[in-house]
Amino acid sequence: MFVDKVKIFVKSGKGGDGHVSFRREKYVPNGGPDGGDGGRGGHIIFQVDPGMNTLMNFRHKRHYKAEDGENGSKKKCHGKDGLDLTIKVPQGTIIREAETGKVIADLHKPDDKQVIFRGGHGGRGNQHFATPTRQAPKYAEKGRLAKEYWVILELKMIADVGLVGYPNVGKSTLLSMVSNAQPKIANYHFTTLSPNLGVVSNQYGKQFVMADIPGLIEGAAEGVGLGHDFLRHVERTKVLVHVVDTAGSEGRNPVEDIYAIQKELDQYNPEILETKPQIIAANKMDIEGAKENLEALKKAFEPQGIKVIPISAAANDNLQVLLEDISALLATVPDEVIVFEPEFEEEQKIDHEAYTITNDEEGYFVVEGVGVEKMMGYTSLDTEKGFAFFQKYLRERGIIEALEDAGIAEGDTVRIYDLEFEYYK
Predict the structure, then answer these.
(1) How does pLDDT run across 157-213, given as a tens digit for each residue?
(2) Which of the residue ranges 98-102, 210-214, 327-331 would you say has the lowest mean pLDDT?
(3) What is the pLDDT of residues 222-250, one digit of tens each?
(4) Fewest C-beta in 10 Å: which of 120, 235, 306, 359?
(5) pTM for the full model?
(6) Residue 215 in marked binding region
């Protein structure tokens, strides 16, 4: 089964917490803090697997999580980093953030490998917070949180030439006659339910990749039928080949069919028709009634610069001429893969270091936290200016508001480590 769009949940690893401990050895009564740092959380990595050509594997597993970092421990031991998680995808996979639809990455190269979401940094142990005035810090950093997102994986097949047209006009037959592809062919609408790729060589040995884009219907740009699932594969192609049933063997008008397909392409993405050269493969010329319609096609489209080539894919007639004209069009476009540039930017969250507010047995409001302790370490609280700066820090970090929420009243005592002061509004 061919699957080219899935939604999955990914989560990087959380950073390990820093450790609080003190060196305790014989003959070393005041060994000082020796809490180790937490390990880094594992990254989420996406990597191209050349052996994959579908996103089918993601239909069975939707949640992916990297390993958390290990907590630090005593004797300055660093926690082990969490294992990265590498997710294999086919070449041409675009990763989008599900909520906004913005592109995170486009894995268009055969050896592409990208870190999409980084694991959280490990927290620092209490050894880092010792100062000349505070030699026994009893707090360590928590590890940074993991990053978690729902993402959409879209497979946009990479091909030089895209065959477009209504169902049952002969696209699969044409691809099978000019390339090594072996698509299923039958006289039914939507026989082709997934894109087929084939490597084509013209008589001069020039090679290019041709894709049979499954048959479109009117309303495809609005998602009717399987419209969006098919139209996305047109975006990477460099040249569009409209394949039409010139004989109108099913009662259709080939001129109107091309206009209808162009309308769907333009509604889906206006840049497709603006940037991609087009050519018309007037197929089924061996069937009665085709010659009259061929003249109508030439009259309608050749004045627009779109060449009309009469062929019969089933009879292998005039296919080399078509391939030469396709090669000539390819020579006019840049020889590079169409890449979708990243648009997604992670929201930068302010890192308010955690603090706690508790009531001790004496009825004091006790505030503890690594940020508060660090602030006290490098702020001179003996001066009016320094104490005003410290009060501003408490207010900006929301600690004053949290104390009020905890029920503090005027005249109550606040204790922050070895600092005590009475609360007044």
Answers:
(1) 778 899 998 888 888 889 888 886 654 444 444 444 566 778 887 666 678 888 888
(2) 210-214
(3) 544 444 566 777 888 899 999 999 998 88
(4) 359
(5) 0.66
(6) yes
Measured between alpha carbons, how far is 166 from 244 in angstroms, rounded to an integer?
7
106 exposed, middle or buried (CB, 10 Å; 0-12, 13-18, 19+)?
buried
Contact, 359 vs 403, CB < 8 A? no
Domain spans in the chain, listed from the N-terminal domain onward? 1-155, 161-330, 355-422
165 is in an annotated binding site: yes
Measured distance CA(381)–CA(314) in Å, rounded:
90
d(CA 417, CA 75): 24
* Amino acid at residue number 171: K
- Is 285 annotated as a binding-site member? yes
Q: Which helix (H) or strand (E) holds 198?
A: strand 196-201
Do the annotations mark residue 80 as ligand-binding? no
- Would residue 412 be called left, alpha or beta, if left means φ above 0 and alpha means ψ between -120 and 50 degrees? beta
E strand spans, 103-147: 103-107, 113-117
Residue 367 to residues 25, 133, 168, 395, 399, Cα–Cα distance (Å): 31, 19, 74, 13, 8
pLDDT at site 228:
53
216: left (phi over 0), alpha (psi -120 to 50) or beta: beta
Lowest-confidence pick of 41-45, 46-50, 256-260, 395-399: 395-399
195 is in an annotated binding site: no
131 is in an annotated binding site: no
Q: How far apart are CA 142 and CA 80, in angstroms?
A: 15
Q: What is the DSSP string of 33-82?
A: B-PPPPPPPPPEEEEE-TT----GGGGT--EEEPPPPPPPBTTTBPPPPP
The CATH class for the domain spanning 161-330 reads alpha beta
How are strands ordered across the β-sheet holding 278-283?
A: 196-201, 207-212, 161-164, 239-245, 278-283, 307-310
Backbone angles phi, psi at 178, to 5 degrees: -110, -5
Please check whether residue 42 is in contact with residue 83, taking contact to mean a CB–CB distance below 8 angstroms: yes
Q: Is 166 annotated as a binding residue?
A: yes
Contacts of 393 (CB under 8 A, 6+ apart): 375, 379
284 is in an annotated binding site: yes
User: 1-155: which CATH topology?
Assistant: Spo0b-associated Gtp-binding Protein; Chain: A, (2.70.210)
> Do the annotations mark residue 309 as ligand-binding?
no
Q: Identify whether the C-beta of residue 317 lies closer than 8 Å to the C-beta of residue 285.
A: yes
Q: Please check whether residue 136 is in contact with residue 22, taking contact to mean a CB–CB distance below 8 angstroms.
A: yes
pLDDT score recorded for residue 79 = 93
Query: Does the annotation list 172 as a binding residue?
Result: yes
Q: 355-422: which CATH architecture?
A: 2-Layer Sandwich (3.30)
